[in-house]
Design a protein that fits this description.
- The protein has a 16-stranded antiparallel β-sheet that branches.
- Helix content is about 5%, strand content about 55%.
- The protein is mainly beta.
- It folds into 2 domains: about 110 residues, no CATH class; about 180 residues, Porin.
Length: about 300
């Protein structure tokens, strides 16, 4: 599929007080742009929602509890700023709206399905629970020059990043350590919530990262127990190494991931290897973005995708 964006994307962001308290904010993004898509020898011109980032609206707030401890919450839902649901895209639904299972446009079928968390923050770090982004997804976004919304994003080639629950996960508790001279770690645990079993559907995501000055390096491991599958394929296991270095004139980044299990298949085990090399070059108030990425399934012939 060939996709051309006529970059007349209109991004409107707004923040303001949702109520009298100054620590509660109503915020959002309206992201619209003209698109020209070609698919199966047909083409269409249209206004799309979610060109660079998903259109959304949300509430967030904090409350000082004293002694360096604060409570916080965030509830965010997606919506289609062009007035149409993702079904209008049919076979050509590739891009920011389609990625994340439609969450960029509609938050799937769940109200406040983009993010819905409550937590505590203090000298001990941050603890939160609810529905949130996985650290596996955030790791890729931290080094991808195109972020997680533009056409060149890794989410368009890496099925693991665009598949529930590896983008966002529900029934989840997470802990992030304080920043210790650049070192920081996190642990996420997703409850299986299956009657009669504590392991079915269970997910955990471990991340360790060092970020100091121009350098960023990290590793992430995500393990997800499948609820129904053959014994040989009872878990998806995903490991990612990532990093970047800012040379001043340009930031160079890299990403490598191995994803084993039934990531997107219901009948065959997959062994995907994904890698990306990228660069961000600041030019005046903007930047030139470039990347090359590849996804290959070692268990499937002729499976290499390049972007």
């Amino acid at each position: 599929m060939k996709k051309t964006l006529l970059s007349l994307a209109m991004f409107g962001a707004f923040t303001g007080a949702a109520m009298a308290q100054s620590n509660v904010q109503l915020y959002g993004i309206v992201d619209l742009g003209f698109e020209h898509l070609t698919y199966d020898n047909t083409s269409v011109n249209r206004i799309g929602s979610g060109i660079q980032s998903g259109s959304r609206i949300g509430l967030k707030g904090t409350e000082d509890l004293g002694g360096g401890l604060s409570a916080f919450f965030q509830a965010e839902t997606g919506y289609c700023a062009n007035g149409n649901g993702p079904s209008i895209y049919g076979g050509a639904s590739q891009g920011a709206q389609y990625q994340a299972g439609g969450s960029y446009c509609t938050s799937g079928t769940t109200f406040m399905g983009r993010t819905s968390v409550v937590g505590l923050q203090g000298a001990f770090g941050t603890f939160s629970m609810g529905r949130m982004y996985t650290s596996y997804f955030n790791a890729a976004g931290s080094v991808d020059p195109f972020g997680v919304g533009l056409t060149g994003s890794l989410t368009n080639i890496d099925q693991g990043l665009a598949t529930y629950p590896y983008l966002r996960t529900s029934q989840t508790a997470a802990y992030v350590t304080p920043n210790l001279s650049g070192f920081q770690g996190s642990v996420m645990y997703g409850f299986g919530a299956q009657p009669g079993s504590t392991s079915n559907g269970q997910l955990y995501d471990l991340n360790a990262q060092y970020s100091n000055g121009p350098i960023l390096v990290g590793v992430d491991y995500l393990h997800h127990n499948l609820t129904t599958s053959p014994t040989a394929y009872n878990a998806n296991k995903m490991t990612a190494l990532y990093g970047s270095y800012n040379f001043g004139v340009a930031t160079v980044s890299g990403y490598y991931a191995q994803q084993k299990g039934m990531i997107t298949s219901t009948t065959a085990q997959q062994d995907q290897r994904v890698w990306m090399l990228g660069a961000t070059v600041p030019v005046g108030p903007g930047s030139i973005l470039a990347s090359y990425s590849q996804n290959k399934d070692n268990n499937l012939a002729n499976s290499t995708s390049k972007m």
